Amino acid sequence: MMKKEKVLYRQWLAAALLLSLAGPAAAQLAGDSYESIAALPDFGGLWEVQRGSALGYTPPSLRPEYAARAAAYAAEDTPAANCVPPGMPVIMTQPYPLEFLFTPGKVTIMLEVYSQWRQIFTDGRALPEDPDLTYNGHSIGSWEDETLVVETVGVSTDTPLARDYGIRHSEQMRVYERYRLIDDDTLELELTVYDNEALTEPWTNLYHYTRHRDWTLTEFICQQNNRNFTTDDGKAGVSLD
Amino acid sequence: MTAKPASAWIELRLPGALLIGVLAATPVAAQSPQGESWASIAELPDWGGLFEVARGGAFLPETLVLTPPYAARAAAYAAAEARGEIQDTPAANCVPPGMPVVMWEPYPLEFIFTPGKVTIMIEAYSQWRQIFTDGRAHPESPDPTFNGHSIGHWEGDTLIVDSIGFSLDTPLGRNYGARHSEQLRIVERMRLVEPDLLEITTEIYDTEALVEPWISTRVYARHRDWILTEYICQQNNRNFTTDDGKAGINLEHEVER
To answer: Which ipTM did the prediction report?
Structure first.
């Protein structure tokens, strides 16, 4: 009896140890408390995307209907002329600083351009089944070791897919982002867009950001100096008087 | 029995006086956690969740007393409104009101504590305010901005925020006729007065525009299960702009009916 109990106890102990290692996810989410945040990689300071880096840029491979729309696009300005931001994913690669704010259960990305933000819920919640469409979408994230992995859905189709506003996405778009430090002051983003309706294949690009520890975000109110008139068809007018 | 605390107090008078001297010499800030590290933030009061101005705080009567030149300007604005010459505010063109009004709008706020900084996320117009709690001073000549330059520190459970550097494009209160000068300074005292009620006292100093400091207090109710919603004013800003820069209104569909 004694011996059997001891064996059972050891088996129970081993099982308990395994469970605690594998972990019920809810109890062990990285960044769910300030203590846990202290153990995360240090994303402090401001980050600005590197321009003209040697990373290359792969254009998206569009399905015929979307390619035709891109080819037919010939506008004199974009909605940005009326202070409308570009939304995800373009907002992440504009030449303005970003800041990551970690709080329990959430990563907030502050975007200087247009004074925007993104909220990435890291508290284990699921994506909404039928999200309200927004420019920056609805995002959840988790940590895979030192990499912040973000999944985004629910991006408004008012926004372009790329900097060229002729390139569009569908409501099906899902954006996957993987952020990790590749050296002390360089953050790498691997950004992949999935959109079966608009793309013939997933579209992946790498971006590098440089850290500026001594910068602070500056207020950006596009409308403050937006004194152009609006033409009858809704475009920003230019007065040459 | 009552004598004991009294005598103990008498005994403590001398060291007490010394202690008061030390407290006066030492910034009170040093006594409270300041949120300079994650460990320090964990000791700060829990301001998690979203807060929305409550109990009519968005529409409090504004009791500011303007100096004669600023009162004259406000009167001229009101007269122009009465004559129909002013029919909208810059908000009609998606220009936010700046401080202090942006803290009083009927939209949620969220407080984000990170080492050395408190960020206030403001749903209205998708804005934010940054309050540096790392001990830095204000810049000597700040670039004027809608929300100003803010530094803060904790005194016990109270966050005290000092802001300067405001753009003259913004109004002083909800009435766009009442303006402020470049001297505007805003001191805010923020603390939880109940588990789910944050109180903010706003002290507005501007000797050029105000006869006396304008002090008002609002409470904000906590909503733990809310999340901030994206707010892009320009998205549906499809009004045309009139020749003099105002937001136009198209009444054609009304006529058709």
So the answer is: 0.81
